[in-house]
Amino acid sequence: MNSLMIQAGVAVVLLVLGYLFGRLAEKRHFKKLIEREAATQHVPVVATRYPPEDRAYDQQLVSGNVVIASDYFKAFLAGLINIFGGRVTPFESMLDRARRESVLRMKDAAIALGATYVFNIKFETSRIATGKVAAMEVLAYGTAMIPTSEEAVRPEIAHEV
Amino acid sequence: MLVSNLEFLPGRTVERHLGLVQGSSVRSKHVGRDIAASLKNFFGGELRGYTELLSDSREEATERMLKQAESMGANAVLNVRYSTSSIAAGAAEIFVYGTAVELQVE
C-alpha cells in the first residue's frame, strides 16, 4: 500500500515537473525559432529539384539535425489521447520544433558558406528509442547554392525562384 | 569532390556516370549518454548527445561514400540521399548513397 502511494507520488511529481519545465522550454524554443527564422529569411529554402540557372553557382550539400525528446507530461497526455484517438497535439508541437530547428541549422551551415539558396530540401524523421527514452531525430538536407559571380547571367529570371 | 543532392548542376555537364556509391555506419550510444538522456526525458527538449552522435555517424558514412567515389575516379557525387534506421535497441544505422559521376572540367 505504502509503496503504491510512493509510486503514485513520484508519477505526479514527474508530471508536474514535466508540465512546468517542458512548457517553459517549448515556449522559449518557439520564441527563438521565430527570431532566427526572421533573421535568416534572406536565404530561401526550396523543395524544387531544378536549380536556378540565372548565374554561376558552386554547390555543396548542407544538413542540419536535431534529436528532441518528449517530456513526461507530453508522453502521458499522448497516452490518454491514444485511448480515444484523434490529434496528438503534444507530439505535433514537438515535431514542429524539431523540424524547424533542423532547417535552421541547415540554413546556418549554408549561410556560413555564403549561399543564397538551399535547393532540393529533404527531410528524414526517425525514432530514437531505448528503454524509457522516446525521442525523434529530424534531419534536413539540401544543396546550398553559392554564387561564384556577382553578375547575373540572365537577370530576367534572377529572382523568379 | 563535389557533393549535391541535385540531379544535375547548372552549367556543368556530366561526362560519365560511374554508378552507385554508398556508405554506412552503425553506431550505438554509451551508457553515460543514455542516463543523461533518460533524465532529460522527464523535462523534454533536445538530447544534444544524440544529436552529435548521429551527425558524427552521418559524417563518417558520407566519408566512406566519398572514398568509394574517389576510387572510381569520380569528381562529384550527385543525387545524394540519407536514410536512418534503428536496428536494435540503442543502435542506429546511417546509410548514404548517391551517383558517382565525372563532371566535365570547365
From TrEMBL, chain B:
InterPro entries: UPF0145_dom_sf, UPF0145_YbjQ-like. It holds the Pfam family YbjQ_1. It comes from the Bacteria. HAMAP family: UPF0145 (MF_00338). Belongs to the UPF0145 family. This is UPF0145 protein IMCC3135_32465. It comes from Granulosicoccus antarcticus IMCC3135.
